[in-house]
Amino acid sequence: MTPEREGSRERTPSGATAATRPRGPRLDQPRPPRRRLLPEWDPEAFGRLSERIARFLGTGRFIVWMTFVIIAWVLWNVSAPGKFRFDEYPFIFLTLVLSLQASYAAPLILLAQNRQDDRDRVNLEQDRKQNERSIADTEYLTREIAALRMGLGEVATRDWIRSELQDLLRDLEERRDGHGVFPADRSARRDVDDR
Q1: CA–CA separation, 145 vs 153, rounded Å?
Q2: At 38, is the secondary structure helix, strand, or coil?
Q3: Which among 140, 116, 120, 117 is positioned nearest to 128, based on CA atoms?
Q4: pLDDT (0 to 100) of residue 160
Q5: Pair 64, 126: CB distance under 8 Å
């Protein structure tokens, strides 16, 4: 190679710091969110809404309002002038509205019950684990108390030492009264007699 060629040739960086190389998506960063055609919804928010609706459907307030609406509906369609009636005597539209309300209420109530069952299952599992820990703690404490009792059985108490000292004192007094001289005094007398 000639020096002219070397100068005209551009040097491309290589390796991990190559800046000119075309790159694909970066693996160390999350992908940007893609646009979706369908709207996104939070299942927890929907579940909470269904529980609120199911809770309202199970109240006396709902029954009173439902009864009031049905009575007003029937009274209007029976006593109103003919051109203002929108549902004649068989009340087919009222039946349709009540069926529609029931068809939506049943799944919402079931969804709320399923969520409650899931919560109950989690609570039951937590209670079971808590009970297992309590049982294990109780067994541990029982073993510790038993070990302490066994250890206390081997420890010399004040009363036991006092009774042992009193027994020893009685033995010494009996020896002194019965023999007149203690064995240590006898050996001392023998030493004196031997001299």
Answers
A1: 12
A2: coil
A3: 120
A4: 82
A5: no
At residue 133, the pLDDT reads 96
d(C-alpha 192, C-alpha 144), whole Å = 60
Please indicate, yes or no, whether the overall pTM of this predicted structure exceeds 0.85: no
50: number of Cβ within 10 Å: 19
Length of the chain: 195
Whether 184 contacts 172, CB under 8 Å: no
Say how many Å lie between the first and final Cα of the chain, rounded: 127
Asked if residue 193 has pLDDT above 60, the reply is: no
| Gyration radius from the chain CA atoms | 49
| 135's tokens | 């049982």
The type of residue at 113 is Q
CA distance 93 to 109: 24
For residue 54 the two structure tokens come to 């199911």
